[in-house]
Every structure is written in structure tokens, then in C-alpha cells.
């Protein structure tokens, strides 16, 4: 189980443009790496749009934003186009990055148990260390949740 202070697992995956994205591409930068279950669902849309609406503020504070879900590249392209998202979404169809970051696991809904994406956000510093993990994401106010927590 990953914890704050750990070295962030090195990952690579393809974004919406089929371009390979690696954690090492962001060396020397702060990264908001968020995991979400599915493109174009209410909670995931709220979370992604909140980060997108505050994208200029986040980048002005030195952050790169990267979203990861098990959706494919075509789904990500449609999601980005529909909501004019300004950041990379990685298509983790094999769930490799999800598993590296403990974001794939047992979920419960109406008494039924199943494996699925655990909504989480990791804040990774310029040195590749995890400085904050959000396991209870406020989808409609995630930017404020992140910034207020980091200012403590």
C-alpha cells in the first residue's frame, strides 16, 4: 500500500493522442495524478471539469494534471472534446498503472462486491515523492481540496 513520503511508482501509458506519457517526463515538476472510474459519468465529469476549470491556477502553481482511467483512447478523445479538457488522460486499459497506485480494488455497491477503480488522487513533488494522497475525493471541489490541503 502506497503512503505519503513514498517514491511514486514509475509508470508509462498512452494518452488521448496515442503518445507515450511517463512519470519521468515530469521530473522537476509537481504532478496531480488522479484516477477515476469512467469517462462521461457524473462524478468523473465533475472531477475532471473542476480540475480543468482551475487548470490555469494549477499550472501557475507549477502543477501538471494527468488523469488515468481504464477507458480507451477513443473514449478519452471524446471526453476531452466534449468538455475541452486541457490535460492528458492516460488510457490504462490493462489496469497496470491503476494497480501500481492501489487504485484498482474491491468495491461495494448495494451489497454487491466487484473489482473496480478506486477514485484517488496523488500529489507528486518535483523529486518524485508522494506528498499527499486523497482517498475521499470531493469531485465538485477537488481543486480547492488539493490546494487547501497542500497549504497546511
Give a brief outline of the structure.
It contains five helices and nine strands; from the N terminus they run E-E-E-H-H-E-H-E-H-E-E-E-E-H.
Describe this structure in words.
The chain is built from 5 helices and 9 strands; from the N terminus they run βββααβαβαββββα. It has one domain: 3-Layer(aba) Sandwich (Glutaredoxin), CATH 3.40.30.10. 28% of the residues lie in helices and 30% in strands. The chain is an alpha/beta fold. It starts with 11 loop residues before the first strand and ends with a helix.
Question: How would the blueprint of this fold be written?
Answer:
Elements: E1 12-14, E2 20-22, E3 30-35, H1 42-53, H2 55-60, E4 63-69, H3 73-83, E5 88-91, H4 96-100, E6 104-109, E7 112-117, E8 120-124, E9 130-134, H5 142-150
Parallel strand pairs: 3-4, 4-5
Antiparallel strand pairs: 1-2, 3-8, 6-7, 8-9
SSE arrangement, N to C = EEEHHEHEHEEEEH
Q: How many individual β-strands?
A: 9
CATH secondary-structure class:
Alpha Beta
Structurally, the number of domains stands at 1
Instruction: Determine the CATH topology.
Output: Glutaredoxin
Level-2 CATH architecture: 3-Layer(aba) Sandwich
Strand order, sheet with most strands: 5-4-3-8-9
Which residues form runs of ≥5 with pLDDT under 50?
A: none
The share of residues in extended strands comes to 25-35%
